[in-house]
## 1
Amino acid sequence: MTSDEEPGAVLPWNEAWELLRGSRFGRLAVSVANQPDIFPLNFIATTDKIWIRTNPGTKLAEMAINPLVALECDEVGDGEAWSIVVKGTARAVESQTEIDAADLLHLESWTRTRKWTYVEITPASVDGRKFVLGGEPDGD
Amino acid sequence: MTSDEEPGAVLPWNEAWELLRGSRFGRLAVSVANQPDIFPLNFIATTDKIWIRTNPGTKLAEMAINPLVALECDEVGDGEAWSIVVKGTARAVESQTEIDAADLLHLESWTRTRKWTYVEITPASVDGRKFVLGGEPDGD
């Protein structure tokens, strides 16, 4: 992916991770039989992983078939915007030791639903971009 | 998908479309070789279609291989949030008649880039949900 193909200035790796770690809300894209789907959700980023919680259902079912996911978060401000896209592999956390460790993250859900399964996303790539907002340039 | 699987109250079809038509910013999920990807972008929804504009590049290239896409937009407010997810098929608009018609939509991009190709998304499903935000319920 080059800047000719996608607009926006590429953010340095550490800046992208910092924005990720400061975010709690994003969207997870999954794909089954080549049909993409998107789920808005709460997440938390640690040093090198991303954690979500969910209840057993569609999302988890889809990730069991295809663990490749993309997670996006963004913020649109007055004159600029940023967006981070993580591509990686999702895995349901099953061992009690890992669940106990995940509990310590205090990953809260904004909705009033108890969601008992942790899912860990191991990033393969983290792509952060910053956009300057404003009108389009005039044509020549 | 039932409400047991995904949280949130399902919005009526017309309410979901109304929120879509009032939105100008969302995220497009595509999938190539089962790897989902997400792109933040501007869009406009008409009566029964969604339009985006892009420059020839990654997104378009991926949609030519797999035209199945998902588009999401959401809004997080004080006590509640909503999210609309459209699944559908993308098609680059190529005839001049269609381009002229698309021009009339005044689909603006927030970034200072001229993007010359219109892409039309024909929805196969529109799923709107409303979420009540707040702390999690206490466990029993």
## 2
Amino acid sequence: MSDRLARVTLMRVAEPGDAMMGRLVAAHGPQGAVARVREGRPEPELAGWFADSLNRESAGSRHERLTARLGRMFASWAARLETADPVRDLAEGERRGARLVVPGDSEWPTQLDDLGESRPHALWLHGEADLRFSCLRSVAVVGSRAATPYGTHVAAEFGAGLSERGWAVISGGAYGIDGAVHRGALAGETPTVVVLACGADVAYPSAHHSLFAAVRSQGVLVSECPMGATPTRPRFLIRNRLIAALSRGTVVIEAAVRSGALNTAGHAVSLNRHLAAVPGPVTSETSAGCHRLIRQGRATCVTTPEEMIELVGAMGGDLAPEPRGPVLPRDQLSPEIRRVLEAVPARTGTGPATVAVAAGVDLDTVLSCLGALAAAGYVERVPRGWRLRPGGSPDR
Amino acid sequence: MSDRLARVTLMRVAEPGDAMMGRLVAAHGPQGAVARVREGRPEPELAGWFADSLNRESAGSRHERLTARLGRMFASWAARLETADPVRDLAEGERRGARLVVPGDSEWPTQLDDLGESRPHALWLHGEADLRFSCLRSVAVVGSRAATPYGTHVAAEFGAGLSERGWAVISGGAYGIDGAVHRGALAGETPTVVVLACGADVAYPSAHHSLFAAVRSQGVLVSECPMGATPTRPRFLIRNRLIAALSRGTVVIEAAVRSGALNTAGHAVSLNRHLAAVPGPVTSETSAGCHRLIRQGRATCVTTPEEMIELVGAMGGDLAPEPRGPVLPRDQLSPEIRRVLEAVPARTGTGPATVAVAAGVDLDTVLSCLGALAAAGYVERVPRGWRLRPGGSPDR
């Protein structure tokens, strides 16, 4: 069984974000994990780790209970494994126009590694945009489903403002803030990313059918669930960690004090991503969650898309730093980076795949070279891809 | 000439907040300052201090210029001194029902000492409430004159909420936020304080005539200007430092990015008072100044009167700390404090003057003893004055 088929199998076998399965995969690889589920025998070290993660248990009854619990978990995985048909899943997904990406693929967003053992085994993507490329400069925008007209207005403004400035909007495709921000983003030219809590082929909510179609042609739908999976409450919550992890920072627009959006905010903080919140009238309960985040000092108060960009842009270096003008002379660039630079056009932007062909290097290398060249001020991102930064390479 | 008459004279001679006159008074006392203006000869050390405060001047031309400037300043003071008639001013003010308080009086709010050389020489007060007592637990609430319906609604809620909880509201009596917060405060039982930028006998704005009448009967009007003085733009700005200095903290409700309310906010910060701002819709320009203060980390985001009280109450100790339950056993109290405690009634509150008579000590001593007793958890403030704290003195 190949790595890809094993990962498609794991999507069927374990619930998204199941850290115990993540542990098994980290120890034995996807194929090894599937084999161990098939054997049905939990290893002792797994029980030990389980005990650590559940330190509420009293020492006396711990061993028996944990062994029983692990046994039930393996039994439930094994039952699902019986009915899993990864070859059919893969064919069915591709027949529907989706593509599977797994860790190591050039489109895999490596920032998901920050999720540790809850990292997805694989993702189904459906849409024209390249997920990794789109997320290089991206902001998660989340908020209440029961948004007010004020909230949906602000969300649409943020969506359009971020997209116009080349920042991809990541959200959950739900009613209210999510829908408004995606629609706003579609008004710009930057891809927008919908992270679903169901299969990539399931339009939920169904009234967003045409929104999802527009995102497929100008962005990308993302799911860590197998095709056909229905959205459940736990899946919504566990999905939120992907929204936080894919982006450089999360901004909450309207959230009551008990809102799912605050769950995403919590993920952003624990992943060391930036967190921001948009204030609103103090008379509005749907802004109370935002105000609490600001008061607690957990979120920065932002009032415009520019302020959000200032916040996430300031992080600099690690993903796709802001151009600051050339800092490295051209002759200090590595030969590979110089080859990529030669292949970047001067006026109209071009995609990384075209640059890869022209430079004669692989796509992954192109993406990392473009990042370095942008940091050094030689190239810049435009809606259609990359181009030389005007005045950015005076010694060319 | 008495200290009081000298101070009334100085109110006529120098503009409010004139730090050069403050310097003169600090060096020679009010009578000495008047005498020196009459002599019309600036001292050399004054020129030196003047030079320090204007260090933009080039060294070469400095001495001549400063001497000329000081001369003009003394001449203008002397001209005003010619027409000043402090005996008439004092009689006229008292005839109108106002009272003069000067540093050292029991009603003088000693927190004004934080203003250093711009401390007022004296204050005209007009109204039933005791200024010093009212300001022990007080919050300044300021904001835009051109307030939105949202802003005036929130201001009225803050005024009523603070007043109901025993916190005096201090503001400037202007249109918009000021007026709304005073009206809200009048709905509670706690005095509200209007700090005017004109004479205590001048109703400005005149449409607030009846508001000022209500404040006189349930609070107090305050002015550092002589009777009859008209409001000018510099007087509004210099007045704002009194609003900030009298209170434990300032909260800004609606302010555009260029609003006079931000001037008060600046005074609050430089006086080490708490500063807070109320958020509003990001689509509203009159909330932009509040959001900027929050974003800059200069102001805490507050959304309710309770949150404002939490902020200023947490400062503790120095003015009128929150009751925290008795911390000192009764037999460790000084004999004087114990005498005051005996005179405080158990149920209905009574004013400090009554306590002073019953305890046989002067009003000033009563005020400081009550502060100490409140800090130790024995007594508490209620709308009508002070009473024993229920359960606050188990060993009585």
